[in-house]
């Protein structure tokens, strides 16, 4: 896959993506400059689909916990690499079966790195944490907030900070009051913790992964409905 941008941006993204475990992303291959501009090339993962396909859908509780556990595991690995993704959203995920990978490290930062200082807030509408909107340094807790927003959306079909306009969305995120109506109790407490307004109150990605994976152990195995002919017999 090829992505275009400035030479400096491509070089930086290549360096950050190279720090991440290749089993958690689409491995960066090379970057460079051509007559048409700069580029970054990553591995093609056959059989994987863009997480953008998740939009407009809701998941069963069992599927939600499995997906949430895999995504949290990917984020935990990224954080262990000293990186904060900063742009966790469906379009930046690749899904192959139960495997969930994060791509596009264009606005990612190293843990503890100061923002560029140019006054610009780099984020995607709907997936940014309150402190990210304030222009504060990114911490792993920002990715946890995005995780909570996505899981809430997939559970209910409604984004917890849904808004028509940017100003309204910023106000809602800043209010610390997500709309979690209809959230199943199996994920409710975990999502609420991930969406805590104070980043210090959010669990780590490792904790989210452990919670989700522990919960799936108690989920009953899938059994197809019995054949009516067998029941009649």
Residues in helix, %: 25-40%
Strand line-up across the major sheet = 1-3-2
Can you tell me the CATH topology of the largest domain? Transferase(Phosphotransferase), domain 1
CATH-level-2 architecture of the largest domain? Orthogonal Bundle
**Uncertain parts:** 221-233
Question: CATH class of the largest domain, please?
Answer: Mainly Alpha
| Portion in strands | 5-15%
Mean pLDDT: 89
Say how many strands there are: 8
* Rounded radius of gyration (Å): 19 Å
Largest sheet: 3 strands, antiparallel
Shape: globular
How far is the first residue's CA from the last residue's CA? 55 Å
Number of distinct helices: 8
Decide which structural class fits the backbone.
alpha+beta
Explain this structure to me?
This protein folds into 2 domains: 2-42, no CATH class; 49-216, Transferase(Phosphotransferase), domain 1, CATH 1.10.510. The protein contains 8 helices and 8 strands. The protein has helices at residues 7-18, 61-80, 130-133, 140-156, 166-175, 185-194, 205-216, 228-232; strands at residues 2-5, 28-34, 37-42, 49-50, 83-84, 93-96, 99-102, 109-110. Helix content is 39%, strand content 13%. The longest helix has 20 residues, at 61-80. The radius of gyration is 19 Å and the shape is globular. By secondary structure, the protein is an alpha+beta fold.
Task: List its traits.
single chain, 233 residues, alpha+beta, Transferase(Phosphotransferase), domain 1, 2 domains, three-stranded antiparallel β-sheet, 8 helices, globular, disordered C terminus
């Amino acid at each position: 896959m090829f992505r275009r941008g400035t030479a400096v941006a491509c070089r930086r993204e290549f360096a950050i993506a190279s720090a991440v475990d290749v089993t958690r992303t689409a491995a960066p291959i090379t970057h460079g400059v051509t007559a048409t501009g700069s580029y970054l090339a990553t591995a093609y993962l056959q059989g994987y689909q863009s997480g953008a396909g998740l939009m407009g859908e809701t998941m069963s509780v069992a599927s939600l916990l499995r997906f949430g556990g895999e995504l949290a595991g990917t984020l935990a690995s990224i954080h262990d690499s000293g990186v904060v993704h900063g742009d966790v959203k469906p379009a930046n995920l690749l899904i192959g079966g139960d495997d969930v990978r994060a791509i596009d490290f264009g606005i990612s930062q190293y843990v503890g790195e100061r923002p560029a200082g140019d006054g610009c807030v780099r984020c995607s509408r709907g997936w940014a944490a309150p402190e990210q909107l304030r222009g504060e340094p990114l911490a792993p807790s920002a990715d946890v907030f995005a995780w909570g927003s996505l899981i809430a959306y997939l559970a209910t079909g409604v984004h917890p900070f849904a808004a028509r306009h940017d100003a309204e969305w910023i106000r809602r995120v800043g209010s610390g009051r997500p709309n979690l109506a209809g959230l199943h109790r199996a994920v409710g407490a975990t999502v609420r913790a991930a969406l805590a307004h104070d980043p210090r109150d959010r669990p780590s990605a490792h904790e989210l992964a452990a919670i989700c994976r522990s919960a799936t152990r108690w989920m009953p195995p899938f059994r197809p409905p019995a054949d009516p002919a067998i029941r009649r017999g």
